[in-house]
Amino acid sequence: MPKILERITISKGKRGDFSPVQSDHYHTFYELFYLNFGKCRFLLKDTVYQLEKGDLVLICPGDLHHAVYSSSPSCEIIILCFRKEDLEWQKMQHMISNVRLSEPHSFMGSIPALYQEEFTGILTRMLAENAQIDEYSEGFMGCYLLELMLMLMRHSVMNEEEPDLLNSRDADILTATKYIYKNYRKPLSLEEVSAQAALSPTYFSKKFKQVTGMGFKEYLNFVRLRHAQTALLTTDNTITDIALENGFNDSNYFKDLFKKVYGKSPREFRKSKS
User: What is residue 155's predicted lDDT score, i.e. its pLDDT?
Assistant: First the structure.
């Protein structure tokens, strides 16, 4: 998946292993993840969900996410990516002026079975136009995106109860992810977090990777980086202070990791957004 999005894009594919759908765990644009067939686990920020056919996830820019698939049967997924400007939210508000709209937020939802065929029909048309059939394709993609969002609002998909959390046997890992999100500034160790989950460090490491698709240290670093990224854009604190405030005890390690993930040093990232 690209780090920078230049237009609305959509792709369809099958997954049947324990690898993530993408190497980047958060990005600068919206992503709509739709499970057309099968079952999978999905990590969104600090919560892991069990998704089934007809479930979808809307991920806002900057939100940590990750999908993990079982080996059998295979899953069929459709991923739609778009930018804030692609939504034309003001135009949508004008079209339905009797309804007060708020900008999209990250959520889990399910397309009612009665409307799944209609929903996948829109996605299928977008998949065809994604090949850039002619000079009208981008226009059609924009129209279909608005149609899709209107459909989600009409059927209250954005406001319904979320799909089930992971079953009770994985509640220990959910406890761990929430503990990390709450305490990421502290010098967390594998031993401390595994104790929160009431598991041995060795078993915890194995189960955490299996359930979330990420290693403990990888997950902790990405949570810290996400908050550090926000601090770079919203404060005048030095890069060293930001590193220390967000759980990194070595500013050079923070800088190297930040550049590896974002493709820019913290200083370059801050200047590019100013």
Answer: 78
Residue stretches of the chain with pLDDT short of 50: 18-24, 160-164, 166
> Using CA atoms, how far apart are residues 103 and 65, in angstroms rounded to an integer?
20
Q: Where are the domains of the chain?
A: 9-154, 168-273
Helices (H) and strands (E) in the chain, counts: 11, 8
CA distance 21 to 213: 10
pLDDT of residue 24: 45
* DSSP secondary structure code for residue 22 in this structure: -
The DSSP bridge pattern shows strands 75-82 and 9-15 to be antiparallel
> 79 pairs with which residues across the strands?
11, 33
Q: How far is CA 153 from CA 31, 49, 109, 211, in A?
A: 17, 22, 11, 31
CA dihedral 54, 17, 106, 120 (to 10 degrees): -30
pLDDT for 25:
66
Domain boundaries 9-154, CATH class: mainly beta
The domain over range 168-273 is classified in CATH as 1.10.10.60:
yes
Q: What is the pLDDT of residues 57-85, one digit of tens each?
A: 999 988 888 887 766 568 899 999 999 88
Give the span between the Cα atoms of 270 and 241, in whole angstroms. Answer: 14
